[in-house]
Amino acid sequence: MKLPDRLEDSLKRFASALDQLEAAGERLSVADRVRADLEDELSVMQDDRARLAAELDGAMARARALSLANEDARERVERASASVRAVLDAARAPREG
């Protein structure tokens, strides 16, 4: 038995609407998975950023400490050099006079 044309057209539109709904549901599902993956990736990047910031702070603190130690060593070498020059100058003075 053949269905009336109007009913057959309605069933075709209904089937098409269901197909479109299923496709939209699939796209939404894919979008949700992509969003979840991006959120996971963002979380990892934020953790990396926090770790790198802490490492950078530590490296900068070590650099400041090394700079201070370098300055202190330079001053000591200058004082020692000045003392050596003074001793050498004092040792030369009696011979020259």
Overview features:
single chain; 97 residues; mainly alpha
Please explain how this structure is put together.
With 97 residues, the protein is mainly alpha-helical. Helix content is 95%, strand content 0%. It is built from one helix and no strands.
Q: Could you outline the blueprint of secondary structure elements for this entry?
A:
Elements: H1 5-96
Which strand-content bin applies to the residues? under 5%
Largest sheet: none
Structural class: mainly alpha
Low-confidence spans: pLDDT under 50, at least 5 residues? none
- Radius of gyration, whole Å: 41 Å
At a glance:
The chain has 97 residues and is mostly helical.
